[in-house]
Amino acid sequence: MIGAVDFVAIGGWIFTAxxxxxxxxxxxxxxxxxxxxxIAASLDDVERRIADMTEAARARWSRRSEVCATLYGHLMKTxxxxxxxxxxxxxxxxxxVEELHTHFRAFxxxxxxxxxxxxxxxxxxxHAIANELRKVRAGATMLTPESGEVTQPDYRKxxxxxxxRLTNDGELGVMISKVEDELREALAxx
Length: 190
Prior knowledge:
With 190 residues, this protein is an all-alpha fold.
């Protein structure tokens, strides 16, 4: 009997070892498979997030490009309007003053509505240009003969000097050129 018990015990041990080995192998297989599925799900999630971020970045870049181009167009139109508005010997009419206001308002309104899309440094520079143009516009309004305002020669001379600042080599002209260069750089146009 001792010999029979030994075979049964040995068979039980072998069976237990085989079942344990198979169980461990199946467990490792299931665990590895679960890990791979978890990794695949994580990678899919990461890929979706990257695609969303890429699309959002593309949309922001597109919006920034549109804002920069449109703002620059408004700025150029306003600069030309201001530069051509008052010469040293011309007297603007109320209609011309209103046209000047219209161009300036379009520039100013567009800038204030879309400043968020501009790089911070460019936004600050455009804001400074808008303030300077606002001062010149206020002076030009006071020079209209149809409004009943009294025109003073020294004031007219000072306003003309303000307008000379708008020429390409004037202070405002240089500021506008600098903004143009920075807009080109921000949009990688050069």
